[in-house]
């Protein structure tokens, strides 16, 4: 890792952050980095198509655009330059881009980090393809439709809906916001960018560390394998600037794997090479692809040597019990909504949560920007990665959800900071899971599908209650006082055996399922509203800083005093629109001194 980025930390003080060798500021895909890339953020032509007649009228070939919009901010946000919160089911984008003449002979890859919900792409009036799913990244190879050395036109139509079977998370599906559901997100909401690569290039790498065996496995996917050419891939692993391992592999098919042992002396004691919140050590990796002896592709990545496991009712990190002090994070900002306004804003949020004594976040109902996960990797923040929910159950919902969830798991797999997958929350999208066998089997299928791709992380199949199969028993309980909490949780058998209900009528397990010794974590609690004239929180609003801190301390001490509970997640880090139960306001101003929150968190 290398000293790189000067930044103000959560206290407003200057710090120099240690980054990976691969770090490029604002680079949108930090797990696979190339030097040559072009950001296409900025001004695009934009228009609404409420009658859905743009395709018939020839907009893919010639779209003037009545408005301008600042990508990647959606039209609902102030930062977009539009700021209209009305729902529009069809919107269009267009811009020109100069393609350098010297890129001819290479493949031009156009990347979208996130577009909500269905994106259709035309290049110079030619239809290229489409992608469904509002939270997963995707790309198109647009080489056949480009004119090199000339100006080219990109046109994107985005189709969104208020359909409750569409994975949407906290986005409202009615005209007005209500309860904990907020203004919808329509269109491009993360970075758009291009890169030019040789026909033979590294398309993807799945990186799996094995702490106990002291090995790391790379599973490579290589594009452009051609008959008659010889491809060789060199992999170089370094730690703190010192070479640990170097290996070379001849490629005779598009998918291969390589396992390297990491027994080494140069980098110091083995334990100092592990990734943890206390010591977020990261290995740098360089992949160099040679075709017929000539360098064709060079990419940079990184990984963390760490192990998440479960044993005897405990979650273990690197074979040591881990007490998780998480905070719920919905990732909204006042003027940009789901889109981080800048990389500095991401760092500010992470800095503040660490300053408050939390060691992780439950990223709630949102698949976050990859740069957020990068900084969690670098700074040692534990992350529970959660899928955006649907709100009705149907065959269509099952298909949409399953496809997008597996895209997300594949894309986020390499991040060491992710320590749990959370595909479902509070029976959203599976409202009759208590007794409906189809809905139960759906959550089981997602659990097992996730474990088939990633057997190394715990999966929480239905966070909060009505669990089916799940590696952790998570509970949501907004009881206000510690004394009441201690009474409710005095008998573990009552909690895990469905003897006590949550949210009035919810129980720990769905019918037909039972406790199997899983770790118990209270993954939502608190939600105390304070210093707000409107909006809502859980329970009664605190009237003063003293009463807020007394209630905050009371419930935290009660959870820590319950010996079979091995972690918690407080609701929540910031206010979000009409929801005012954050420790910070929407614009990130602390409601109480952060050092007092830290003192209570650290007990």
UniProtKB/TrEMBL annotation:
In this protein, which residues make up the domain named Glycoside hydrolase family 2 catalytic? 309-599
What biological process terms from GO does the record include?
carbohydrate metabolic process
The record's Gene3D superfamilies line, in alphabetical order, gives: Galactose-binding domain-like (2.60.120.260), Glycosidases (3.20.20.80), Immunoglobulins (2.60.40.10)
Gene Ontology MF annotations = beta-galactosidase activity
According to the lineage, what is the superkingdom?
A: Bacteria
What are the alphabetically sorted keywords of the record? Glycosidase, Hydrolase
Q: Does the keyword Hydrolase apply?
A: yes
- InterPro entries in the cross-refs: Beta-gal/glucu_dom_sf (IPR036156), Galactose-bd-like_sf (IPR008979), GH (IPR017853), GH2_Domain-Containing (IPR051913), Glyco_hydro_2_cat (IPR006103), Glyco_hydro_2_N (IPR006104), Ig-like_fold (IPR013783), Ig-like_GH2 (IPR006102)
Q: Give a yes or no for keyword Lipid metabolism in this entry.
A: no
- Record-stated family: Belongs to the glycosyl hydrolase 2 family.
This chain's protein is named: Beta-galactosidase
């Amino acid at each position: 890792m290398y000293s790189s980025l000067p930044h103000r930390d959560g206290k407003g003080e200057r710090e120099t952050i240690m980054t990976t060798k691969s770090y490029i500021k604002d680079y949108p895909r930090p797990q696979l980095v190339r030097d040559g890339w072009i950001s296409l953020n900025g001004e695009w032509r934009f228009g609404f198509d409420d009658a859905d007649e743009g395709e018939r009228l020839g907009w893919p070939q010639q779209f003037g655009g009545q408005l301008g919009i600042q990508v990647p901010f959606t039209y609902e946000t102030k930062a977009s330059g539009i700021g209209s919160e009305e729902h529009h089911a069809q919107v269009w984008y267009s811009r020109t881009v100069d393609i350098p003449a010297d890129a001819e002979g290479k493949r031009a890859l156009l990347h979208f980090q996130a577009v909500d919900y269905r994106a259709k792409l035309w290049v110079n009036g030619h239809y290229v393809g489409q992608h469904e799913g509002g939270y997963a990244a995707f790309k198109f190879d647009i080489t056949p439709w480009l004119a090199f050395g000339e100006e080219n036109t990109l046109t994107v139509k985005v189709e969104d809906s208020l359909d409750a079977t569409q994975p949407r998370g906290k986005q409202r599906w009615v005209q007005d916001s209500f309860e904990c559901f907020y203004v919808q997100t329509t269109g491009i909401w993360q970075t758009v960018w291009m890169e030019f690569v040789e026909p033979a290039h590294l398309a993807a790498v799945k990186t799996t560390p094995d702490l106990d065996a002291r090995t790391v496995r790379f599973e490579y996917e290589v594009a452009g394998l051609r008959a008659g050419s010889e491809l060789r891939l060199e992999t170089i692993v370094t730690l703190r600037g010192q070479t640990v391992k170097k290996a070379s592999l001849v490629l005779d098919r598009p998918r291969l794997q390589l396992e390297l042992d990491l027994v080494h002396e140069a980098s110091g004691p083995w334990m100092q090479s592990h990734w943890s919140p206390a010591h977020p050590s990261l290995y740098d990796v360089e992949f160099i692809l040679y075709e017929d002896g000539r360098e064709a592709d060079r990419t940079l990545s990184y990984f963390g040597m760490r192990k998440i496991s479960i044993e005897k009712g405990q979650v273990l990190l690197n074979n040591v019990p881990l007490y998780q002090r998480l905070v719920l994070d919905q990732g909204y900002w006042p003027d940009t909504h789901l889109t981080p306004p800048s990389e500095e804003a991401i760092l500010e949020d992470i800095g503040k949560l660490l300053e408050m004594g939390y060691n992780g976040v439950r990223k709630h109902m949102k698949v976050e920007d990859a740069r957020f996960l990068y900084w969690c990797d670098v700074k040692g923040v534990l992350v529970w990665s959660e899928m955006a929910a649907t709100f009705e159950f149907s065959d269509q919902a099952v298909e949409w959800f399953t496809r997008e969830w597996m895209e997300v798991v594949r894309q986020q797999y390499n991040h060491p900071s992710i320590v749990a997958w959370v595909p479902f929350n509070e029976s959203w999208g599976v409202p009759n899971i208590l007794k409906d066998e189809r809905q139960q089997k759906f959550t089981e299928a997602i659990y097992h599908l996730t474990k088939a791709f990633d057997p190394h992380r715990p999966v929480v199949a239905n966070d909060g209650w009505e669990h089916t199969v799940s590696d952790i028993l998570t509970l949501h309980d907004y009881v206000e006082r510690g004394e009441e909490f201690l009474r409710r949780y005095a008998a573990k058998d009552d909690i895990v055996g469905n003897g006590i209900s949550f949210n009035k009528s919810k129980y720990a397990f769905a019918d037909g399922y039972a406790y199997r010794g899983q770790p118990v974590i209270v993954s939502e609690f608190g939600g105390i509203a304070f210093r707000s004239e409107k909006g809502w929180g859980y329970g009664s609003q605190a009237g003063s800083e003293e009463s807020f801190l007394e209630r905050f301390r009371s419930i935290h001490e009660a959870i820590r005093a319950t010996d079979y509970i091995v972690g918690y997640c407080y609701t929540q880090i910031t206010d979000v629109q009409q929801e005012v139960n954050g420790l910070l306001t929407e614009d990130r101003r602390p409601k109480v001194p952060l050092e007092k929150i830290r003192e209570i968190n650290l007990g």
